[in-house]
Amino acid sequence: MTATPHGPLTGVRVVELAGIGPGPYAAMVLADLGADVVRVDRPTGAGLGIDPAHDITNRNKRSVTVDLKSERGPGTVLDLVERADILIEGLRPGVAERLGVGPDACLARNPALVYGRMTGWGQDGPLAQRAGHDIGYIAITGVLGMIGAPDQPPAIPANLVGDYAGGSLYLVIGVLAALQHARTPGGAGQVVDAAIVDGTVHLSSMIHGMLAAGAWQDRRGANLLDGGCPFYGVYETADGGHMAVGALEPRFYAEFTALLGIADQAPEQGDMARWGELRELVAARFKTRTREEWTEVFAASDACTAPVLSLREAPTHPHLAARGTFTEHAGIVQPAPAPRFSATPGSVRRPPALPGAHTAEVADDWGLPQLADPPATGP
Fold this sequence. Notes:
Blueprint: E1 13-17, H1 22-32, E2 36-41, E3 61-65, H2 73-82, E4 86-89, H3 95-99, H4 103-109, E5 114-119, H5 134-140, H6 160-182, E6 190-195, H7 196-203, H8 205-212, E7 232-236, E8 242-246, H9 250-260, H10 275-286, H11 291-298, E9 305-307, H12 318-323, E10 326-329, E11 332-335, H13 359-365, H14 369-372
Helix pairs in contact: 1-6, 5-6, 5-7, 6-7
């Protein structure tokens, strides 16, 4: 079957062993870019506690159901692996091996396979076998401790920094780099160990450089980019909304103070001794108008000031609407695929894959009649 071009990864086949969080999101990114992603679901169904029809991390994928604990299960997955370019799994270290679908078994069937492993702590180290979640992973990296007000506990950035930025996106980078290597003359498949702790630390590279140079204090709320600076922060408006200010450069700061109406009162931008005074001045001024009113004031400027929108409000922002940053598919408003490609654009082609819904289709497309007849579920 010839694949219809729908992204730069058209023709790449991916097997995803069902999990939750960063593994499914990484597979979704690959699927958005055109890869043919087959998710191997358990007979017990999805692991995330929401209706699978709304789990958009499973969009653009197809699902088959395989019981890896059954006699036929591991062999069925290895049959898929033999025809795949990439496998993604997010099991605790050693579990895939015990199930018969670890790297050795998979690479024996397909030496060119890229075997992507997604974990929080990594495949080795003292914590490798411990349970964990995003908050714990980013806690030990020093990143959680940087976020929030100095007189409050660290602020929790949902699970975006660890699971998805430090985890999923590093796994995507890793498996695509390894795929490139596997396809070069003399190249071969390999294992990609993507640990959330590793990726999260890597994200903080610039901060570590600033720390070494003495340009960053090792405490939150005391630095240029963590809320310590009065012209890089968030302020409440008269209606309880908030405006985000990022007027770092002198000319942007000048425009910001002019539009805010404090140009004749504001201290010099670099006068750190008066930053407390400046913060109070900015805060008091923002409290005089609503978020909508301030949005209008700054809308056509280079003052680097924007309204803080909610998740439901974001799709209506004029800029995001004009770019199509959000899209609606199967009745769900959701982020559109990113990034964008001039010649091979990605798209949302399928709604979230329901567990086992595509067994017959995949069996036909991948040349695996045994996948569908008899069913590969149960012993």
